[in-house]
C-alpha cells in the first residue's frame, strides 16, 4: 500500500517488527543480565552497609552499656569515697573527743594534783608558820617571860583583891 | 522468572502480529515511478529500491535497519557470552561502559517516570541504542546494488520516512500502553490528548536525519567541496545528530510515558475547602 511521500505501510510494519525484535533481543541478551548484575551488586553493598550499620549500632550499644557501667562504678566509687571520708571523719572526731577527754582528765588530774600540792604546801606553810610562830613565841616567851610573869602576877593579884573586895 | 516469561510471550506476540501486518499490507509489486532529481531520489527512494532477499523491493533504509539490528544483536550476544559472565564487583573499562550504557537509560526511565518504569527502561535502552547506532551507520558507507543496477551506500535507516513513522508510531503506542497499564482507560484519554505526538516524533526524526543526508549529498555533489569539508559535515554532523536524536527521542518518550502513567490524584473537594476557609 503506497501513500504520498513514498510512505509504505508494509515497510512501516517491517520497521516496527525489526525494532520490536531488536528491543526484545537487547532486553533479554544484554539489558536484563547487566541490570540484574548491577541490582545484585547494589543489594550486596546495601547488605554490607546494613551489616556495618548493625555492627555500628551494636558497638554503640555496647559502648553505651560500658559507659553506663563506668558511670555506675564512678557513682559507687564516689559513694565509697564519701563513706570512707565519713568514717575517717568519725574516727578523727572520735580520736579528737578521746584526746579532749584525756586532756580534760589530764587537766583535772593536774588541777587535783596542783590542789593537793597547794593544800600540802599551804599545810606545810601553815605548819612551818606554826612552828615558826611557836619558835618565835618560844623565843618571845623566853625573852619576855619575866615581865609577863610579873604582869600575870599583878593581874592575878588584882583579881584576887577584887574578889575579896566583892566578898567583902 | 514469571515476569520474564510474560515479557517473552508479549515479545513473540508482537513479532507475530507485526509480521502478519507486514505480509498482509504488502503491495503486489509493479513499476516504480521515474526519479526526476537526485534530491527527490534521496528523499523518497522511489528509484533507489533494493531487493529484500529477492522477496520484494524495499527502501534501502529497511536494509540498513536490518543490518543495524543484526549487528547490534550479534554484538549483544558476544557481550553476553564473553563479557557479562566476567563482570566483577570492581568493574573494568568494558564493564563500566556497559553499565553506563544500561544505567543511563534506566536512570532516565526512573527519573521521568517514577511510578511505572519497568518496561520503559528497556524500551529507552533499545530506542536510544538503535537511533544512535543506526545514525552512525551511514558513516560506514556499506554498498548495495539497487534494483536498477546502480551501486549506492546504505543510508541511515531513520532517514527513510517509513522508519521514522514506524519509530514514532511505535513510541506513541508504547506510551499509550504505559498509560493503559498504569491508570486503565484513562491512560488512553491522556495519550489521545497528545494526538500530534506520533507525527511530531516521526517527522522530527525524519527531518533531522534527512537534513543531514541532504547536506551531505549536496556537499558531495560539487567536486570542489569534496575535500576536507565532508569530514566536518559528514562525520561531525552525523555524530552530533546521532547523539542529539537519540537523546531527544528517548527523553520525549520518557517524559510522555511518565506523564500518562502518573497515578490519578484524588479530587479535592473545593466546596468543603471553601467552607472551611470561610469558617476560619
Category from helices, strands and their pairing of chain B: mainly alpha
Number of helices of chain B: 10
The average pLDDT of chain B is: 81
How would a crystallographer describe the biggest sheet of chain B?
2 strands, antiparallel
**Looking across the biggest beta sheet of chain B, what order are the strands in?**
1-2
Keywords (chain B): ATP synthesis, CF(0), Hydrogen ion transport, Ion transport, Membrane, Transmembrane, Transmembrane helix, Transport
Protein name (chain B): F0F1 ATP synthase subunit A
Membrane topology (chain B): Multi-pass membrane protein
Organism (chain B): Faecalibacterium gallinarum
What descriptive keywords fit this protein?
heterodimer, A: 168 residues, mainly alpha, 2 strands, 2% strand, B: 280 residues, two-stranded antiparallel sheet, 4 strands, 4% strand
Task: Compile the SSE list and pairings.
The complex is a heterodimer of chains A (168) and B (280).
Chain A (H helix, E strand, L loop, with lengths): L1 E2 L3 E2 H159 L1
Antiparallel strand pairs in A: 1-2
Chain B lengths: L1 H23 L13 H7 L5 E3 L3 E3 L1 H24 L9 H20 L7 H18 L5 E3 L5 E3 L7 H23 L1 H9 L3 H25 L7 H32 L9 H10 L1
Antiparallel strand pairs in B: 1-2, 3-4
Helix pairs in contact in B: 3-5, 4-5, 4-9, 5-9, 6-7, 6-8, 6-9, 8-9
